[in-house]
Amino acid sequence: MIPFYKLERYEGNAPLFDLTMMSIVSTYVGEPLHVHAEGVRGTGKTTIARAARGILPKIKRIKDCIYNCDPDNPHCPQHRDLTAAEIEALGVEEITMPFLEISQSAKVGTVAGSIDLARLTDPLHPEARLLPGLIPQAHRGIIFIDEINRLADTSPEITDILLDVMGNKPGHIQIEEAGLPVVEIPVSVSVWAASNPDEEPGPLEEIRRQLSDRFDMVYYMGRPDSVEAIARILKENSYAFKVSQAKKKYSTAEDEAQNDVYRQKILKWAENYRNADLPDYLRNYISRLYIKHNLESIRATEAMQQGALLHSIIKGHDKVLISDVTDMIPLVLKHRVNGDVLVRMLNDVDMKGAKEGILSFKSKKNKKDEETSPDYFQQVARPLKDMSRGELVNTEKTLTPT
Question: For the segment 69-125, what is each residue's pLDDT rounded down to a tens digit?
């Protein structure tokens, strides 16, 4: 697979690279960011997601913990009641941030968890124990689902599990097996997905709207728009080029060095994100957008705030800018509102301008004040207070003149 840094970037896919790194940064600090990439087949959605595995940073966990327990905040049934001294005695290790995939053929047991058959059939010490599935094992990492619209259509049980996992930050998962006590554990995992809305069974928001709303950002990936970009993609995927790269002794070391550059950036961005906050005037601006355009999901405002902070950090801004917020509007709302509402919002921001739009929101009076204001109505008639009684009330004499 082509390393992340070598993947061709063009106008149609550049935002997806940003969203990928934003999600990794947010996942590293313990706040999932769910990303869904839509687009026609063959545009590289899945390639970008899988290549990002190479730039994932290291995380610390309790040694050999299959649930990836944070030593400072253990959560699994085996470690959550241990003292700091007991955890220290068990030891701590570093592993690469988990990256697991849920396939179209996945079953509920493989996704959530099931009975550990190896323990159950152990001839010396047989015991009935639960084996965590893909989602519990991906705690503090990434779950990737290709063709999520198909999965939502054919596997409603797995979709229900994803709704619980993605409903809150962190989410939770419940593992149930007959004869064993129910195990419920928190899980902090970012879900990445890819789909082609033009193919059967259709867009995710039309198949399972609740699951579509769980995604913080949805990006529609465009096709390459230049001959040069396509030519570079063809060259990098040619057999001769791959063979020549494989023969270079320094190739693997060079790729790892470039991946490490990304990891160091991610660690730096994560530290900045821990200390970042959205200014009150931008938070009020997002709130006004929610009220003015009658948005349904409060998750939209939360995603807009989280996205604006992360976007400002990876772009190297000293503070969060209004452009960081407005850049998030189409990503956050594409799957949550119809096209007419989204176009009105974007046109409203473009026509008013960022500064004017914020100032108008900040100084805007409430509805009652507007109705009592003398400037609320357009000045196309004389005020009532300036009109005489004869002009306001028609008597019988005026109506029936002699």
Answer: 999 999 888 898 899 999 999 999 999 999 999 999 899 888 988 765 555 455 655
Closest to 47 (Cα-Cα) out of 107, 2, 95: 2
First to last CA, the chain: 99
Token pair in block for residue 390: 């004869």
With contact defined as beta carbons under 8 Å apart, do 141 and 99 qualify?
yes
No. of helices (H) and no. of strands (E), the chain: 21, 11
> Is residue 399 predicted with pLDDT exceeding 90?
no
Please provide the DSSP assignment of 82-144 as one string: --HHHHHHH-EEEEEPPEEEE-TT--HHHHTEEE-HHHHT-SSS----EEE-HHHHTTTEEEE
Which tokens in the block code for residue 83?
A: 């003292």
Q: What is the pLDDT of residues 353-374, one digit of tens each?
A: 555 555 454 444 454 444 444 4
Whether 34 and 248 have beta carbons less than 8 Å apart is answered as no
Nearest C-alpha neighbor of 203 from the set 36, 20, 14: 36
Quick check: helix, strand or coil at residue 58?
A: strand
Pairing of strands 183-187, 99-102: unpaired
Q: Which long-range contacts (CB under 8 A, 24 or more apart) does 156-163 make?
A: 156/208, 157/108, 158/102, 158/106, 158/108, 158/111, 159/208, 159/211, 161/108, 161/111, 161/112, 161/135, 162/191, 162/211, 162/214, 163/210, 163/211, 163/214
Task: Please report which confidence band the pLDDT of residue 279 belongs to, taking 50, 70 and 90 as the band edges.
Answer: very high
* Site of tokens 């950036």: 265
List CB contacts of 41: < 8 A, sequence separation 6 or more.
196, 199
Q: Which tens digit of pLDDT belongs to each residue from 174-233?
A: 887 766 777 788 999 999 999 999 888 999 999 999 999 999 999 998 877 778 878 877
Owner of token pair 């001959």? 227
